[in-house]
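Please predict the structure of the following assembly.
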Amino acid sequence: MNLCHWVVTASLLVQFSFSAISNAAEVGHLTFEDDVQPILRRHCYRCHGSKNQEASLQLNLRSAAMGLADSDEPIIVKHDADASLLILRTEGDAHGDQMPPDAAPLTKREISVLRLWVDQGAPWPNALAEPKHWAYQPITRPEISEGHSSKTAIDYFIARRLKQRGLAMAGSVDRARLIRRGSLALIGVPPTPAEVQRFVDDPSANAYEKVVDRLLESPRYGERWAVPWLDLARYADSNGFQADQIRDNWAYRDWVIRAINDGLPFDQFVVDQIAGDLRENATVDQRIATGFHRMTTCNVEAGVHPEANRVNQVVDRVNTTATIFLGTTFECAQCHEHKYDPFTQEDYYGLFAYFNSTPLEVKNTSGVTWDFYGPTMELPRDEDAARRHRQLNEQLARLEGDRKEASQASDEEFDQWLSKLRESHEVAWKPLVPENFESSTGEEFTILDDGAVLLAGSVPDTVEHVFTFAYDQKITAVRLDVLTDDAIPGKGPGRGDSQRTNIILNEFTCQHLRGGKATKIKLQDAAADFSQSKWHVSGAIDGDRKSGWAIAPQFGKPHWASFVLAQPMKLEGDKDRLRITLSQFYGRGRVIGKPRISVYSGDTTFLNLDDSLRELAAKKKLNKADTAKLRKHFNKDNPRIRRLDRQLADIKKELQTSKPDTTLVMVEMDQPRETAVMIRGDYENLGQKVQPGTPAALPGLESIERTGDRLELAHWLTSPENPLLARVTVNRWWAEIFGTGLVSTLEDFGTQGEDPSHPELLDWLASELIESGWSRKHVHKLIVMSDAYRQSSRVTPELLEIDPTNRLISRGPRFRLAAELLRDNALAISGLLSDKMYGPPIMPYQPDNIWRSVGRNQPKWSAAQTEDRFRRGVYVVWKRAAPYPSFINFDAPDRGSCTVNRGRSNTPLQALTLLNDPAYAEMALGLADRILSDAPANDDASRLEYGMQLAVARRVSTYEISVLKDLLDREREMLKQNESMISGRTKVPFREMSLRFKDPAELAAWFAVANALLNLDETMSQ
Amino acid sequence: MSITPTSLGRRALLQQTGFGLGAFALSQLLQSESIAGSASSKGTLAARPPHFPAKAKSIIYLHMVGAPSHLDLYDLKPELQRRNGEPCPKELFESGKFAFVRDLPNLLGTSTDKKYQFTRSGQSGLPLSNLLPHLQGVADELTLIKSLHTDEFNHGPAQMFMLSGFGRFGRPSIGSWLNYGLGTENQDLPGFVVLITGNVLGAGSPAWGSGFLPSVYQGVEFRSQGDPVLFLSNPKGMVPKSRRAVIDTVNQLNREQLLDIGDPEIATRISQYELAYRMQTSVPELMDISAEPTSIHEMYGTKPGQTSFANNCLLARRLVERGVRFVQLFDQGWDAHGSVFNNIANKARQVDQPIAALIRDLRQRGLLDSTLVVWSAEFGRTPFAQGKNSEGNDTKAGRDHHKDAFTVWVAGGGTKGGMSYGSTDELGYTIAEKPVHVHDFNATLLHLMGINHERLTFRYQGRQYRLTDVEGHVVRDILA
């Protein structure tokens, strides 16, 4: 049956694939507005339009176009294309230079459209006789004539347009698909099987409306709709450029989510972001919102010129503002008058002036090194945290006083210490030869006679080296030598890079083994011959996997570190063992090439004393400088001071971690900067002075309170007279829900943009937005409640010919989910999705070595070992130089600049990502576990049906079940013969995660089924 | 030839394979009808004819990240050596902009030590540093441009400017422009491949990004550690046979869906899953250089399994052999603000042999005429000394960033070879004759690929964008 079906359709496809061109133009539906003017606009108006009239020719004016060229030849001869200069000059160069002279020629199709139009008598409606760009006209709420049968206004406009083309709306989609479509569109998460069932079974007339209302009130709604907004706002968690360090602005992201969930009116949403700080009695939220324009990239590589950097940032703010709120390409006017649209360079710098009075965002630290700086705001904290913070500061002050006092201790104590020092001997470290040695990655190694271990073979990214010793003497201290050797590239001590032979020892752990039990030996007082800045050796015994000991730039020579046991201990060699673990987690092969362990059993007071000090102490007579030097060391060795230092370090550490979170905000300088036109966009070549102002071609500032600052601009942008804001906004929402905008060029509403497919619908929606008090939820509800949205997305070959991209809305939307939502969807299906909201960005799994940019203070990736791993994509950290790779594979932008329209590709890299990315393998395992644990019945068919419903919501066919059952059976068989594969498939990604279903072999077989389910085109489409 | 969305129709959408766009994106793109005036019905990464016939079919673009001291490799200045240690002429210093040096510095001539001397090389007698002995052996293939200049003097912006014609983010890189304009010859591989030694350059992945072009044109990094292409290998415990079974199941269900819904995007999806499966064998095979003969390994200095610039040069040849349009190598570590003579000697030793081997190897295979090799960086280095690092501490003499005059070279692909073009003044400070701006250079690279840089445009935000903005003149004197 199915086979037959396929054959029949396949022959249909072939038939259609060879059908001739058939489109509106050829079948006689040609209109000037839809077909001809766009061609003239694109190719001709640049030189023959309102702005320029090369050869005195103006083709956007009917009277002129119907007249004579300066050669006295007619431009357009009605009903005679062959005599029309318009045709002759664009077709070739037989009648003078081919037009346009400096760009791609017209396509054959375009010329044939022009020909047909001229041959049909060149009809040119009166309404369009003179140039008036539609987007700059006031929004007029269109009339809806009586007597139509459409359920909603949206449907009225769409049905009318379809009727003009001889089409009608498609039938309704079934309920299961509808609730899935609506859920993905509104909250970006699929419905649960129970939600589907409830809707399918709901007999009430407003069943669907109830679903829509529930979705609009879900906290997931804000998370989903924040995603496209964050693209516009170029939200990222890093600076961009070289020195692409992480900076804290996640509070802005959280503000966006909250504002959308709370239904903040869209005009207020805009005002807060542009100028929340300047509002009267600005709230914390309004100030956080201004982070919007702090998302701009900031180059802090050494040697940057701060003013150039600042100007670039302001330019970005101007361009982004114009793109998002005006749908206008303002960028051109930075250097010269806009070629197509009615904007001048003065207009550009008028907008520039609004943004020109915020302080520099880089700070000189030393030499020509710059750090990211600029205004930040502390986020409010709860009272407990604030109280603790105050306590800590008080303690800190007290301890610092004690420390000062202790350092001035009596001479008597010092003299005692000095005589003890004089009696002390040089420390005799005893190297130990390990009884056993292991490298966690299985490196090759040789244990040398002196106890050193020489490692060889391929260099691991990260490793743990484990020594076991049999020793039967007292131990008071342990020492690690990292030695050099000619066998190590660059001599070592690190193995990973022959140029920079660094090592990074994150943790040095000492354990006492007896009878299979390991007890941790507490270490203190770490010392080393040298520690890299910010990588002090004390980090190797602080229990923090991220800190540690490193030795750059002292490459190519041996180094040592020593650690004192908190309590001296004695091992019994016949039953005790000493185990020492060197944990090296940094990555990139910063691993030790030749370690050696030694022990010491004496007094540790003078353990790491510099020889020069011992010599100094031996001197008969000490001068003032000698005493000061020794005294300094005495203080360091004084137990009381040591204790105080430890307490101080603890408090400082807690203060550091308990510091209030901050976020980036806009702040106006007391003295505004003067703004002048930058000649050819060069900030060092200034022309005439400019005051803050809005573009002359758009409605003026008459009704706006003239404050001359960003608040004035924000009020102007959101004023009812601005015809653009509402239009571009509803158009972007429409595109998010339908896949394409009513104006397909979401980013350009200027004369070079596409005309709206449904101009009246666009204006109707825009006026609904304004009249509803700028309610996003209201407009979203209108759209998804329409019959147009509820159409089936089935498409026939005939329909595909007439309406290939669904611009006529002749069917329901169907398109692949955006990157973050694709991941959210898969996480939800697999049952792993965490609903934890807000806070600092998260790191799910990503392959090693993605974050490895040049530049200082580069952050490191450390995959979350908690539910954070499975939170929504909107919370994933965004590093501009290396964004999350699976997002990039699905068209996510780098967020270096404002992105209006991501595009939607379909590539083999996407297939590889969903099939193989370990992050998606984790989801497949979760889904397998969910199916096996939660399916309503335990037979294969019920489970497969349940799995499919999780993935695609609708009822599934027996054929589909049989295809999946084949896979399941084959996999079971295969795993029977290859049991070793089971553990690979069923290993949980981190310790705290557990599986409910306990039969690994079944889980492993269902893993393959789950992997298939997450890869279905239907699963990844809405 | 021109194609309309409707004539392309269903056939193309269904037949489309390879690194294609989605049907949706494709139709969007074709609606804009701006793809260099032509597009193939086989999908937008299918090979497309250039604007005019050209020898070069592919580019291997070697970018030395951090910017080498061109003065010590290609543009020897005896007068600068003679005046070594003298203060830099004030009017010169004050006319320029520098990243690190803020006070009047002293001139720094190339070391007079023997190993830094230059030798006239090849029949053309091109003077090249003795730090590049292998490159001296292929001097007659090289066309040096000694008069390049750029607009930016910080790494990140200058890298973006060199590679995308714009000093900030958001514009397509040259590789993605060519991928967009010409498509690629091998539908089973990306048309634009990136290979990296050292850390990733400061501009990050946007340096091979597609900006506002469809993302299918962006570069794909082939990695020498871990999966060569991200997510190429199967999850743990999944053998190829199981992978095949999963893909068969997915495609079977997708076909069922295609029959029901009719969305051509599903057909594309099916073909992409097949291609993904093929890539799982073809990419590792491509990346495995162990089967290359010993003579090749000796010539390049390659060792299988290693991460090295030499290995990447050999991989570049293997990629263009397989029809990849644009191969970009990034090699980091050239930013010699201190100890410039040590740095340049070390780095030159790492790249000299493999680059010369690449040129010879392409020549012996008859591929050099159809492959344009480009050696470049984001800017050059100053003729004066930098004696302090970024924190303001004293260091051994280095050179600061110099945007106003530097040297790059091209080889093969329809260039003359054995010549240098343009020159700098006696101190190597400013351009003396025949300046070549980055836009001119990029216009020339496109021209060598058969592309009129003014006609390779993409409509975005209502403007026809180009790699060369509104400028750029082809440097005709270097064309064969």
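The longest strand of chain A covers residues 559-570. The first helix of chain A runs from residue 2 to 17.
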